[in-house]
Design brief:
Bound molecules: zinc ion
Number of strands: 15
Structural class: alpha/beta
Order of helices and strands: EEEHEEHHHHEHEHEHEHEHEHHEHHHEEE
Strand order of the largest sheet: 5-6-7-8-9-10-11-12
Radius of gyration: 21 Å
Length: 414
């Protein structure tokens, strides 16, 4: 049995279940200790009680010397497996072209699809590993990754195979999602045919091979309609996959209400969602996922209305949406900080959004986002006493070490 006793924890942060809008989302235990056994938390609480427990058996003692410890961060929405770069699109936007204009002239998702088509599975894995390592250094210990740049079956399965291979190459836990992202040009006049192809030749085999836990659809004007999304959602349900939806990103399409109607696990983006939709999400228990990296990266449009979503009673998760076209952002604490400074969340709610909120958005057990007896020992050690320092220097979070399954995977604890 490998046992490690961590003391000198100035603040041990525990996100808990939200009950309405009033309860504080975090519990802070001061002068705490953690006992880790075989990659799991076996005890957590006041230093004296835990140290006495540890004394009963052999444990390696690590004194953190007054540093804050937080549960590992859960990034519940990314497109981190892709090929090539779209930095020139950023240059075009800086000269005044819009995201839609660039997409209409061959840029956007179709550009990423053309780049992915040319890449080997191995290249996709290697480039994504570099990005995952940078995410890990910012505290992310669980990461959702979507397909959706393949569009056609062979390329979608190549992308899903790369996502699956990543699971064995990183300490991070990966959750895979098969994404209906765009209708390929060759099917623009045969949309129903593409929807059937997606369901039968992409979604169903991905579910059978256990290469996806969720299905996601980009519901937006000019992309997938509600009716098309309904067909895909029914196929997802039949295949045993959970449902996530990209909604109300560029226009208010009533997407939040639609996600509530379909009983999705999460509704993501929601920049343009309306009050009726926010109330519907809260009633249906659909997690509202905000992605402030997009507004940061594109420099246009509204910031996600995280405060309005919380005030409506929604559980709000925060994710990076890391992707080459609209949010080339790996830094989850930065996104949480923006959900506070621009989206109106408290710092406590922002941290909840990248821990317990991320777990809720991926239908993971709450124990994956807390540090109590029996939980996964995934945690982040700050170089500061006050956990709120995580948000104090945007882009440069004061992280000394990230631990996954009881092992230090980045940084050091000396
Ligand atoms: Zn996305």
């Amino acid at each position: 049995v490998r046992r490690h006793l961590y003391t000198g924890i100035s603040e041990l942060v525990q996100p808990h279940a939200l009950e309405g809008q009033t309860r504080e989302p975090l519990t802070i235990q001061r002068d705490a200790a953690l006992l880790i056994e075989n990659g799991q938390v076996s005890a957590a609480g006041p230093r004296r009680a835990i140290a006495a427990l540890a004394a009963a058996g052999h444990a390696t003692h690590i004194d953190l010397g007054d540093r804050a410890v937080l549960p590992g961060f859960i990034d519940s929405h990314t497109h981190v497996v892709f090929a090539g770069t779209r930095v020139d699109e950023m240059a075009r936007r800086a000269r005044g072209e819009t995201y839609e204009q660039i997409a209409a002239s061959g840029g956007g998702i179709k550009r990423s699809a053309a780049q992915l088509e040319q890449a080997s599975e191995r290249e996709l894995v290697e480039t994504a590993l570099g990005r995952l390592a940078r995410m890990l250094s910012k505290g992310t210990t669980t990461c959702e990754i979507k397909s959706g740049y393949g569009l056609l079956p062979a390329a979608e399965h190549k992308q899903l195979a790369a996502i699956s291979a990543l699971g064995g190459r990183t300490a991070m836990r990966i959750v895979a999602t098969v994404l209906a992202h765009s209708i390929p040009g060759v099917y623009s006049e045969r949309r129903a045919e593409y929807v059937a192809l997606f369901c039968e030749q992409i979604l169903a085999p991905a579910a059978r091979a256990e290469r996806a836990r969720f299905c996601d659809v980009f519901v937006e004007q000019g992309v997938f309609t509600n009716d098309e999304a309904r067909t895909i959602a029914a196929a997802a349900r039949a295949a045993g996959l959970g449902l996530k939806l990209h909604v109300d990103q560029l226009h208010d399409n009533g997407g939040a209400e639609f996600a509530a109607e379909l009983g999705a696990t999460s509704a993501d983006h929601l920049e343009e969602s309306n009050a009726r939709g926010r109330a519907a999400l809260a009633r249906a228990g659909v997690v509202a996922t905000v992605l402030p990296g997009c507004r940061l990266f594109l420099g246009k449009g509204p910031w996600p209305a995280a405060r309005a979503l919380r005030d409506a009673g929604c559980e709000v998760a925060v994710a990076t949406d890391c992707n080459p076209g609209s949010s080339m952002v790996v830094d989850l604490p930065l996104c949480a900080m923006l959900a506070a400074t621009e989206g109106g969340l408290s710092l406590e709610e922002a941290l909840w959004g990248i821990t317990r909120g991320g777990a809720r958005a991926l239908a993971l057990p709450a124990t994956d986002a807390t540090l109590t007896a029996g939980d996964r020992a995934d945690f982040v050690v700050l170089s500061a006493e006050d956990w709120r320092t995580l948000f104090y220097s945007p882009g440069d979070p004061p992280i000394d070490a990230v631990v996954i399954g009881g092992q230090v995977v980045t940084g050091a604890l000396t």
